[in-house]
Amino acid sequence: MARRSLDQISAFADLVEARSTAMLRLAYAVVGDYQLAQDLLQESLVKVYVAWPRLRDGAAAEAYVRRTIVTTAISWRRRRSFHESPVEAVPEENGPDDSDRLATHDVLWDHVRGLPPRQRTALVLRYYEDLSEVETADLMDCSTGTVKSQLSAAVDKLRERVGPHSGVLFPEDQAVTR
Q1: What pTM, to 2 d.p., does this model score?
Q2: What is the pLDDT along the chain (178 residues), one digit of tens a residue?
Q3: Cα 172 to the chain's mean position, in Å?
Q4: Helix and strand tally (H, E) in the chain?
Q5: Which domains, ranges and CATH numbers included, belong to the chain?
Q6: If you ran DSSP here, which 8-state letter would residue 82 be given?
Q7: How far is residue 86's CA from residue 77's CA, in Å, rounded to a whole number?
Q8: CB of 148 closer than 8 Å to CB of 123
Q9: Is the dihedral of CA 30, 34, 35, 41 positive or negative?
């Protein structure tokens, strides 16, 4: 096993400390479950730590972590044991009704989680993580055209599920009907 210098260990620790919240947010958006997101991030960081001495460009380390999160999530989805049986409805918790905004947010994320993995990943990377189409294509290891078609299909499915003029996806959709 290669020995790591204190500088390498420190650089890795600094990256994890500075960007772990954003990385966890990405992992959650990709898998749609908080506990799975934690596991995904942990497994991805282990992979990055093992590869750390081979990284040539320390400035690209965060992009490497994002790529590792996406590819690890995709490989998890391919495993037969990954798929669980979903329940029809989550049990209600007794508590105050938060707000319409939170309800809309939850409904939208339920629809996003219902998208096929590649469409969901493209949507999350492009719009939630605010990456360009080229960066998204690079992380997903596909062409820019594939990203565009995945995004188009994802947005079409979401509009179909929530209604084209609900205003949930894009406020300008609602303004057209008024």
Answers
A1: 0.52
A2: 456 677 778 888 888 899 999 999 999 999 888 999 999 999 999 999 888 888 877 778 888 999 999 999 888 877 655 555 566 776 666 655 555 555 566 777 888 888 998 999 999 899 888 889 999 999 899 999 999 999 999 989 888 887 765 555 555 444 444 3
A3: 25
A4: 8, 0
A5: 1-82 (1.10.1740), 98-178 (1.10.10.10)
A6: G
A7: 15
A8: no
A9: positive
